[in-house]
Amino acid sequence: MAEKQDAMGRAPAPSHVNPYGRVDEEVAEVAERDERRKKRMKCFVYLVAFIVFQTAVILIFGLTIMKVRTPRFRVRSASFNTFNVATANTNPSFNIQMLAELGVKNANFGHYKYQNSTIEFYYRGTKVGEAPVPKARAKARSTRKFNVIVDLSSTNVPTNLLADEFRNSAIIPLTSQSKLRGKVEIMKIMKKNKSTNMNCTMEINISSEQLGNISCR
Ligand SMILES: *[C@@H]1O[C@H](CO)[C@@H](O)[C@H](O)[C@H]1NC(C)=O
Ligand SMILES: *[C@@H]1O[C@H](CO)[C@@H](O)[C@H](O)[C@H]1NC(C)=O
Ligand SMILES: *[C@@H]1O[C@H](CO)[C@@H](O)[C@H](O)[C@H]1NC(C)=O
Ligand SMILES: *[C@@H]1O[C@H](CO)[C@@H](O)[C@H](O)[C@H]1NC(C)=O
Ligand SMILES: *[C@@H]1O[C@H](CO)[C@@H](O)[C@H](O)[C@H]1NC(C)=O
Question: Among its keywords, does the record have Disulfide bond (predicted)?
Fold first, then answer.
């Protein structure tokens, strides 16, 4: 052990033993640790903020754009090609060819592709006509309109029921029912089967030969 000694015979204190140097180092170390902790804290805060932001974006995205809404299927209007209505008490009847405009309202941010179906018309519970609904595709956020021709006939309606109706009013009340089965596809990633029911009530005004009071639920 050959430690150098100074004139006074004391071993020179190594720098890390120097009380002042040691304090300096400790201060520096504490400051550095503090700095690192602050940095980590900052990083953490940024990360949390980022996650919150991302979650909000995904939520908003999911609740608006990616949300699958049920399309609405309804009767929009109609005109008549033939209009034969006999209101006579003895032999009341109707034979009407109706050109009905139907609408498939698709509020989704993606198209709605539906299969072949049929639409049926009823007079007070008795079926009086039907028409095919060909398969098609309703574009994103739009209403697809198309026409169907349907022959409405009172053949199966009890005569007394019709006679009563015509005695009291000059209208033919109708209901229409249909079900579309199809698929909503949003941005190629979201595909979901979605069916929609039509349930409309309407009235044919016999004197004006017009369809009115259409109400769908
Ligand atoms: C859909 O209807 C059309 C005619 O309207 C027919 O040619 C086609 O085969 C039908 N498709 C299915 C899957 O029933
Ligand atoms: C969606 O409908 C099709 C027929 O239109 C069927 O084959 C398929 O299994 C359905 N998918 C789901 C998830 O219900
Ligand atoms: C259609 O709506 C009427 C009420 O307006 C209701 O009594 C009837 O059950 C509905 N039919 C279907 C198939 O939803
Ligand atoms: C049928 O139409 C005529 C002419 O537009 C109108 O005067 C009459 O009030 C209508 N009837 C009903 C029941 O709405
Ligand atoms: C619609 O229906 C209401 C009652 O349901 C009736 O008072 C009104 O006259 C109808 N309007 C038309 C245009 O048929």
Answer: no
